[in-house]
């Protein structure tokens, strides 16, 4: 809730009180926000008790869904009638009526605690003001949000809250985006009466990510509820009572959750703030850029806050279909990796084995010369985890023009199934998982592979008691699950109906099977997929109204790579290659490359593959370029440049476009829109940004029969360190600290 | 050392274009003579050679080749002399020299390696933003 909004509301109220005042016309003239005009009119309208009041808009465009139209009840908020479904609270009804009630402990996605009392409103016929967040709206209720009684009550609550709150706003990182600050400006008293000493509370150690200043805590318990309800760790709790009440970990323990960073956002005061961001910047100096995350295949929506050329922090952006309003700790804190180990100049490895910085002109000339000296079948291109669709299509087009068909995306394994889109995306969609009632996880640990998908599964499990069966190596889950087995033989048992979990699956209305992309690396993957298809067919998981057969991808570029058909003719070709073009692929094993091969590394970090490179072409990272990424459910989204590029680096697709011209096989696109229309001819779904395009067919009916049986080898852990999965996170100091804790 | 240019003062206006032209050459020679000093006081040896500096000065002068009015030439000469004085007196810092005269002038420097190719390629070699 912004200060401006609150303050303007406070102003508005005074304007309304002054409705009988002949000067109120003048007051109206000095307010400029449309919202205020609106209410000034309504103030005028209030004078005549006619029912045709001007329509007020719900706060922040909130919408209600009436599950059953008969359940609608009508309440009056400041005289406005609103229809809300039964069971909504008074606070929600006020939101629908366009009145934002001040609050601290209430949060849309958490259970109701009702302990801050900031949301007091007056209800006709009730003797005392009521806490609107905890009071269900009843038919015909007359709610008054701006009466002197309600205001007095809020002022009193503010006074109590501020009694023990330190006056350290000037050195507090929350300053400027603090609910307590905003609301005390808008609703608080203009003087203090408190002369005693304030209490102080020992700070708690919550690990390398969350900084605590517990004296600032107002005991709203949002963090406690978040930890137990969303993150699924019972680490935080309330200790003591009355003035001795504290938030803390019961024993000296760190918060071990991949979502712990979100408590920073939900804490309404500066008690929990970001440790890496501490004292680095003030939030009003930051420029926010709405972008997306590339550390996993979820594509969480983020806002990149930058100051000058530096990314200062990353915070989540609301997207109900993907990440709701949370992001994982990796997404939130890996940004310091963008400042370390960066490649900033084109470089050529000299005869002495050392890199020498050269001009772009020379670097491209060398690469173009070498690529013409090798045979087309000896040219190989590998796109890396973080590649965007534009650069992948450029790489593919360029190497195709050179005569090579061997371009692939690292981590997709040999011969990935790229023909049928339903075979590699999450068909149910991330938000659709909430409708599932039984989950079968095959060789995937969503908690480390895609933390936001895991949060969604957890939400479903908690809300509907959905069952979860898991096949894979022993793993840490934060919800109830059954570990069915470790290898493909369990799948065979399930497919044949011999396994006890089969009855749960077959009785399920909406079963969801989630297969991890780690399977792509296995030799017997076709056999495994056919077993999974069999299960899906048996339990009727793929129907016109429900597609419960999902792949959970691992990397940001993976879905787009498969959409664009970055599939090698044969991955063996790298062992006989003479020219290898590595576009940010740091997890590809370059030891297989023959010693006399010429390796070009294009990327933004001096990570693993650079050690083998002959030429380095510095590229821009995702915070510096505009690029299209498709997430695991097939939703295309674009990043937006937030900061300038580092050194002399260039955008990935531009490098390839320029190289193609130097190599005299010019690619026919000169700008983003041209390259995007080229993408449109291959994978039109990548152009429909921010929209999820479901796959046209389902695979199971179309995949060829596979005769051989899957190996007995158990599934392996795919991501062994959640915090370090790609070149940026490996360069990050904060992620290194987190991994060190993980190993302990 | 610096004394050669230190006491230059405003000369009377040039009477004709020919005289202005002669003065330009004189100025160029003075500038060329102070190049070794400039190289020394700003430690330019590792970034630029004297001959490059000379061609930079020449290209600065050629930028205004189209000017024919002796008055205007005099004015620009005065400004040039002033600039040269500032440089020679070490009133500037190294990054001023680098930023104004040395870096970002690839166009003038590698005239020999003149770029063939499309607009895209030329822009690409210049910067990432186009
Ligand atoms: S630490 Fe923050 S979120 Fe937790 S109870 Fe205190 S004020 Fe609320
Ligand atoms: S928001 Fe209602 S009591 Fe805290």
Automatic annotation (TrEMBL), chain A:
Cofactor(s) the protein requires to work: [4Fe-4S] cluster; [2Fe-2S] cluster
A Pfam family of this chain: NADH_dhqG_C
EC category name: translocase
Domain 2Fe-2S ferredoxin-type residues, every copy: 71-149
Transmembrane regions: none
Keyword vocabulary terms for this entry: 2Fe-2S, 4Fe-4S, Electron transport, Iron, Iron-sulfur, Membrane, Metal-binding, Mitochondrion, Mitochondrion inner membrane, NAD, Oxidoreductase, Respiratory chain, Transit peptide, Translocase, Transport, Ubiquinone
PROSITE patterns according to UniProt: 2FE2S_FER_2, 4FE4S_HC3, 4FE4S_MOW_BIS_MGD, COMPLEX1_75K_1, COMPLEX1_75K_2, COMPLEX1_75K_3
Function: Core subunit of the mitochondrial membrane respiratory chain NADH dehydrogenase (Complex I) that is believed to belong to the minimal assembly required for catalysis. Complex I functions in the transfer of electrons from NADH to the respiratory chain. The immediate electron acceptor for the enzyme is believed to be ubiquinone. This is the largest subunit of complex I and it is a component of the iron-sulfur (IP) fragment of the enzyme. It may form part of the active site crevice where NADH is oxidized.
Name of the protein: NADH dehydrogenase [ubiquinone] iron-sulfur protein 1, mitochondrial
TrEMBL record, chain B:
This protein's GO CC annotations: mitochondrial inner membrane; respiratory chain complex I
Compartment annotation: Mitochondrion inner membrane
GO terms for biological process, alphabetical: response to oxidative stress
Keywords of this entry: Electron transport, Membrane, Mitochondrion, Mitochondrion inner membrane, Respiratory chain, Transport
Membrane-protein topology: Peripheral membrane protein
Main location: mitochondrion
Family assignment from sequence similarity: Belongs to the complex I LYR family.
Record-given protein name: LYR family of Fe/S cluster biogenesis protein
């Amino acid at each position: 809730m912004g200060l401006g909004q609150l303050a303007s509301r406070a102003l508005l109220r005074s304007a309304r009180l002054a409705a009988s005042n002949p000067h109120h016309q003048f007051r109206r003239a000095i307010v400029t926000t449309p919202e205020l005009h609106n209410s000034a009119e309504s103030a005028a309208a209030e004078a005549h008790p006619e029912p045709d009041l001007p329509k007020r808009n719900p706060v922040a465009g909130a919408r209600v869904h009436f599950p059953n139209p008969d359940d609608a009840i009508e309440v009056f908020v400041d005289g406005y009638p609103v229809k809300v479904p039964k069971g909504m609270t008074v606070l929600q009804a006020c939101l629908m009526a366009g009145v934002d009630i001040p609050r601290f402990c209430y949060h849309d996605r958490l259970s109701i605690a009702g302990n801050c009392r900031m949301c007091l409103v007056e209800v006709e016929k009730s003797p005392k003001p009521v806490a609107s967040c905890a009071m269900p709206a009843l038919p015909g209720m007359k709610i008054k949000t701006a009466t002197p009684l309600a205001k007095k009550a809020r002022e009193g609550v503010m006074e109590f809250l501020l009694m023990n709150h330190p006056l350290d706003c000037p050195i507090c990182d929350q300053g400027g985006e603090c609910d307590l600050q905003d609301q005390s400006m808008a609703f608080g008293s203009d003087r203090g009466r408190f002369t005693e000493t304030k209490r102080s509370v020992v700070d708690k150690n919550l690990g390398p990510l969350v900084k605590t200043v517990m004296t600032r805590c107002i005991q709203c318990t949002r963090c406690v509820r978040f930890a137990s309800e969303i993150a699924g760790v019972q680490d935080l709790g309330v200790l003591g009572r009355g003035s001795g009440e504290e938030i803390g970990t019961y024993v000296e323990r760190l918060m071990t959750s991949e979502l712990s960073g979100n408590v920073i956002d939900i804490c309404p005061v500066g008690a929990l703030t970001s440790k890496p961001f501490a004292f680095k910047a003030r939030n009003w100096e930051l420029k926010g850029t709405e972008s997306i995350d590339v550390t996993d295949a979820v594509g969480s929506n983020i806002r990149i806050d930058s100051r000058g050329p530096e990314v200062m922090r990353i915070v989540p952006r609301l997207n109900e279909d993907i990440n709701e309003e949370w992001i994982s700790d990796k997404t939130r804190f890996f940004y310091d990796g963008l400042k370390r180990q960066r490649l900033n100049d084109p470089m050529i490895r000299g005869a002495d084995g050392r890199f020498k910085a050269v001009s772009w002109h020379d670097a491209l000339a060398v690469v173009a010369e070498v690529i013409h000296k090798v045979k087309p079948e000896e040219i190989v291109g590998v796109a890396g985890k973080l590649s965007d669709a534009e650069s992948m299509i450029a790489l593919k087009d360029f190497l195709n023009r050179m005569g090579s068909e061997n371009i692939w995306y690292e981590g997709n394994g040999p011969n990935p199934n790229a023909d049928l889109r339903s075979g590699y995306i999450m068909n149910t969609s991330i938000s659709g998982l909430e409708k599932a009632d039984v989950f079968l996880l095959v060789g995937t640990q969503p908690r480390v592979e895609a933390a936001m998908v895991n949060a969604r599964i957890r939400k479903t499990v908690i809300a509907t008691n959905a069952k979860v069966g898991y096949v894979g190596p022993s793993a840490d889950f934060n919800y109830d699950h059954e570990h069915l087995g470790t290898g493909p033989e369990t799948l065979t048992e399930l497919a044949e109906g011999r396994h006890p979990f089969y009855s749960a699956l077959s009785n399920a209305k909406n079963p969801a099977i989630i297969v991890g992309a780690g399977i792509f690396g296995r030799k017997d993957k076709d056999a495994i997929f056919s077993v999974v298809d069999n299960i899906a067919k048996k339990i009727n998981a793929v129907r016109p109204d429900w597609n419960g057969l999902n792949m959970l991808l691992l990397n940001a570029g993976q879905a787009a790579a498969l959409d664009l058909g970055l599939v090698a003719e044969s991955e063996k070709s790298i062992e006989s290659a003479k020219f290898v073009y590595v576009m940010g692929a740091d997890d590809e094993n370059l030891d297989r490359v023959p010693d006399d091969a010429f390796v070009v590394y294009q990327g933004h970090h001096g990570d693993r593959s650079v050690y083998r490179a002959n030429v380095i072409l510095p590229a821009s990272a995702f915070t510096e370029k505009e690029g299209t990424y498709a997430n695991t459910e097939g939703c295309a989204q674009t990043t937006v440049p937030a900061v300038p590029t580092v050194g002399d680096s260039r955008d990935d697709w531009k490098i390839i476009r320029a190289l193609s011209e130097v190599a005299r096989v010019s690619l026919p696109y000169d700008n983003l829109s041209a390259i995007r229309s080229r993408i449109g001819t291959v994978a039109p779904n990548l152009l429909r940004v921010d929209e999820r395009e479901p796959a046209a067919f389902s695979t199971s009916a179309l995949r060829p029969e596979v005769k051989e049986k899957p190996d007995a080898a158990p599934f392996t852990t795919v991501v062994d360190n959640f915090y370090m999965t790609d070149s940026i996170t490996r360069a990050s100091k904060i992620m290194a600290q987190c991994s060190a804790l993980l190993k302990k | 050392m610096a004394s050669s240019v230190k006491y230059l003062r405003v000369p009377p206006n040039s009477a004709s274009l020919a005289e202005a032209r002669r003065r330009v050459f004189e100025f160029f020679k003075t500038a060329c003579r102070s190049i070794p000093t400039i190289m020394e006081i700003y430690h330019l040896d590792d970034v630029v050679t004297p001959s490059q500096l000379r061609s930079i000065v020449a290209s600065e002068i050629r930028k205004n080749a189209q000017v024919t009015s002796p008055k205007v030439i005099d004015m620009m000469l005065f400004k040039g002399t002033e600039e040269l004085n500032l440089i020679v007196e070490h009133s500037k810092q190294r990054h001023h020299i680098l930023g104004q005269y040395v870096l970002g002038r690839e166009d003038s420097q590698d005239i020999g390696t003149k770029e063939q190719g499309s607009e895209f390629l030329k822009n690409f070699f210049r910067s990432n933003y186009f």
